[in-house]
Amino acid sequence: MKKFFHTIVYLCFLSGLLAPVAPVFAEQDKAPHIKSNSAILIDQKTGNVLYNKKDNKKMYPASVTKIVTAILAIDSGKMDETVTVSKNATLTEGTRVYLNEGEQIPLRKLVEGMMVNSGNDAAVAIAEYLAGDVPSFADKMNEFAKKAGATHTHFVTPNGLFNPDHYTTAEDMAKITQYAMKNSEFRRIVKIKNLPWHVKGWDTTLVNHHRLLWDYPGTTGVKNGYVDKSKHTLVTSVSRDGMEFIAVVLKASTSKVAYSDTTSLFDYGFSHFQRQKISKGTLIEDPAGRKHALKEDLEVTLPVGEHVLKNVSASGELTLKNSAGDSLAAVQLFQPSPKKEASQMAAHSSGEATGSKLALQLTTRTALFFYSGFLMLTALMVMIRMRNKRRRALQRMRRYEKNYTFIK
């Protein structure tokens, strides 16, 4: 009986070993606790997402909208032209740089005033100069957003003053900022801390509203914002040790929360991630065993200590992935001939079918081990129970015989 029991225990243990085990990721408890309603952290160079929280949720951006207005002005090639300020621009609500009707100011100066002091009036003056009126400029903004990959964004104003149809997402703002930060003139403007400002009736020095330019080492811009409906919004870029990250936080309850969340994201990013580069000319093997030279450098951003995984499809596409299987970068490694592609696809499909069959067999085998172990354990429990019942019956019989002998 004892030998039978040991056998069953061994089979149950073996079936447990063969069962699938869920993966455990070492970094899962190290991500920061973000209080803002929506947030994202990306690598400016690779575009890889390092952290996200409701990053596709539609939100009101407030003044971070001006990032779009600024890059459109720079891309127009008209930065040295002179703008005549309209009455409509001077009547704009909110934060201003106090423009006067009829005043003539270089477009470059308007962009600087808009980004440093968040001048809503400057944003309207820019929009009217580049497109004739605000609605036409909004069309240009939306066209640009689509080209930048911001597919959940719709702009109505050049300054971010509230409109229910003026919205974006954290992910979209990160993509827009990634594009803008590739422009050297944009980078120069968003890094300005103090800007001498001389207009009719106002002679002062404007101070950049983005606090992290002073308080967080490596900060290179970009823009903060606030309206009552959006609460506090903040887009920031930081560069350290050859790496540059972009953080976006939307709808923070207070300015303090927005800045705290942002620095937490950067602390997390710079301490837990690194770039890995696969150099041009590296030989990479395709499914058929042939090797192809990489035609360009590829870089991806991964957790420290993790190595990039390479996958080459039968159609010749190289995909770089992390350990979770997320696609980080893709490039066409080679162009197969139609005949070779068809045969490789067939072989690939066959391999997938074989792999699926093996996986099914393994799953079935594991299930059988569990089931047989369960049946054996149940049988053992029944046998033990029957043996105990028999033992109790014998004990009762012996007591009866003993009592009967005594009475007799």
Automatic annotation (TrEMBL):
Active site: S63 (acyl-ester intermediate), K66 (proton acceptor), S118
Residues making up the signal peptide according to the UniProt record: 1-26
Gene3D superfamilies named in the record: DD-peptidase/beta-lactamase superfamily (3.40.710.10)
SUPFAM superfamilies with a match to the protein in the record: beta-lactamase/transpeptidase-like (SSF56601)
Keyword Metal-binding: no
Keywords: Cell shape, Cell wall biogenesis/degradation, Hydrolase, Membrane, Peptidoglycan synthesis, Signal, Transmembrane, Transmembrane helix
Pfam family of the protein (one): Peptidase_S11
GO molecular function, one term: serine-type D-Ala-D-Ala carboxypeptidase activity
Domain Peptidase S11 D-alanyl-D-alanine carboxypeptidase A N-terminal per the UniProt entry, residue ranges: 29-254
InterPro entries: Beta-lactam/transpept-like (IPR012338), Peptidase_S11 (IPR018044), Peptidase_S11_N (IPR001967)
GO biological process: cell wall organization; peptidoglycan biosynthetic process; proteolysis; regulation of cell shape
Transmembrane spans: 368-386
Annotated binding of substrate, by residue: K223
Family: Belongs to the peptidase S11 family.
Protein name: Peptidase S11 D-alanyl-D-alanine carboxypeptidase A N-terminal domain-containing protein
